[in-house]
Amino acid sequence: MTEKQSTRDAPLILATDLDGTFAGGTSLARRDLQEAIRCSPAATLIYVTGRSVPATREIIAEAPLPQPDLLIADVGTTVVRGDDFQPLREVQGTIEDLWPGADTVRHLFRDFPGIEEQEVRAPNRVSYWLREGAMEETLTHMTERLDDERLDLIGSAGVYIDVLPPGVNKGSTLLRVLDWLDVPGADVVVAGDTLNDLALFETGLRGVVVSNCEAGLRDRLANRKHVYFARGEGAAGVHEGLQFFGCLQGGADGE
Ligand SMILES: [Mg+2]
What we know:
Helices cover 34% and strands 18% of the residues. By secondary structure, the chain is α/β, with parallel strands linked by helices. The chain folds into two domains: 13-95 and 168-244, Rossmann fold (3-Layer(aba) Sandwich), CATH 3.40.50; 99-164, Alpha-Beta Complex (Hypothetical Protein Ta0175, Chain: A, domain 2), CATH 3.90.1070. The strands form two sheets. Strands 4-3-2-1-9-10-11 form a seven-stranded mixed β-sheet, sandwiched between helices. A four-stranded antiparallel β-sheet has the order 5-6-8-7, covered by helices on one side. Strand 5 and strand 6 (126-130) form a beta hairpin. Helix 2 packs parallel to helix 10 (234-244). The longest helix is centred in the N-terminal third of the chain and has 12 residues, at 27-38. It is globular. Bound molecules: magnesium ion (MG). Magnesium ion is lined by residues 17, 19-21, 193-194.
């Protein structure tokens, strides 16, 4: 692509969703993307996923995916190091301070119609399946139930509802992590496919929306100058976006 700048010196920091994005698409596309990142000196890989830490470790082993430098899991409410999956206390602590506890959330939404708690157990979130009814309407009624409790609700992919500490999402946690890393936002590219990735793009950082994205995400991000809408699906889309932003160096493939 003409936008590629092979002489670029700045390191790449890729903060990417997994399902449908970095781990999406064909195995060939995943391999090509991973190879291109390996060929980029000083690349930093941050996974930003709705999965729990154990579920992320599963997909890393199964896909397979490279070990990340950092993992932001549970829709932004858990931050661990990529080498040993131990909490990054400096960031994790600020999130825990905002969380009223899962039992408080369960009590608020006990008997709430049309939702069912997911099996996943995470430290700072409670997640539900939407079993009946429309997403927007359900979120509105759940919000009405919050009363004075400060919590955020995120619906995505038409079936997932996450209850999170106030102001905590994939984007706000990524900004906390970048601050801790002390790196410039100009070196960062985010990537995603569903509405729980919206907050990643709302950071104002450069972003890639893959072509298999949820329609709502595309609608919400239309005409944003810092957002690239890829033609490729999953890993192929991420690869295409990194090329568009001129982030890949050296002998990487994918011309
Ligand atoms: Mg996804």
